[in-house]
Amino acid sequence: MFSGKQLRLILLMVAATTLLGCSENQTPPLDQASRPGDKLSLPGTGEVTAHPDRFHLHATASREGDDVPRMQQEVNAEIRTALELSERLELDDDDVEAMSIRIQPQWQWQPERELIGYRVARDLKLTVSNMEAYARLVSELTELGFREINDAGHSISAPEIYHDEALKNALADARRQAELLAEESQRQLGAIRSMEVMSSGSATPRPMMARAVADEAESFRPGTRTITREIHVTFSLE
Fold first, then answer.
1. Which CATH superfamily is 33-50+159-237 part of?
2. Residue 156: is it exposed, middle or buried by C-beta count within 10 angstroms (0-12/13-18/19+)?
């Protein structure tokens, strides 16, 4: 049996232990917590409209018949005149590519397989940097006798500039959303904790309004491209 003094001492020790346990494990009220681990993660999307400034053209000089040497001479002569045209238009050497000559047999399949001649052809790839030069190139190639002139697409000379701008817009979009959510929840938006770029982005072309043929060269429109970048950002919340 414990004496009265010993019993009171035991009860005091038990009470102290209980209080200490509560102080170590009890979660403080939400408005008193520092919440250093709170964060807000969300995506951002940025877009930039880019205008193509490189226009590509594919022209073919060709002949069909039996006299292969003569056809070769005519095709090569036609290509030479086109190369002279590119010099007059002051195209860079990197923007002019004359391909090797091709000689292909032509077959008749009905009523039986029979060689009826040859096709001699040579391709020329040209690139210009503005629409005026493009229209003039199509027109003059037609006057030189080229019967096969095709649009080979268009591109952007410095796409990295547009990708960087779209990436900045994506970060701004993520920050705008984060600031809105922080304000609505009566919190303060802190520093960026992490960022992840989702992909290298895409360039979505809009269709051209006309084909690259002589009678439509003046109305040719390359359209625009929309470059998109996406990012995932994590902010601290205070």
1. Protein of unknown function (DUF541), domain 1 (3.30.110.170)
2. middle
The predicted structure's pLDDT at residue 147 = 87
Query: Whole-angstrom Cα distance, residue 165 to residue 228?
Result: 10
Q: Which CATH number fits domain 54-155: 3.30.70.2970, 3.30.2350.10, 3.40.50.12780, 1.10.287.90?
A: 3.30.70.2970
Q: What is the pTM of this model?
A: 0.61
Distance (Å, whole) CA 130 – CA 135: 9
**What is the DSSP code string of 102-129?**
EEEEEEE-SSS-EEEEEEEEEEEEEEES
Q: Phi, psi at residue 154, to the nearest 5°?
A: -145, 160
At 11, give phi and psi (nearest 5°). Answer: -65, -35
- What is the C-alpha to C-alpha distance for residues 32 and 237, in angstroms, rounded to an integer? 15
Please report, as a single letter, which amino acid is at residue 165: E
Structure tokens at 201: 């982005």
Instruction: Give the distance, in angstroms, between the CA of residue 54 and the centroid of all CA atoms in the same chain.
Output: 15
Q: How many angstroms separate the CA atoms of 238 and 37, rounded?
A: 9
- Tens of pLDDT along 13-30? 444 344 334 444 443 343
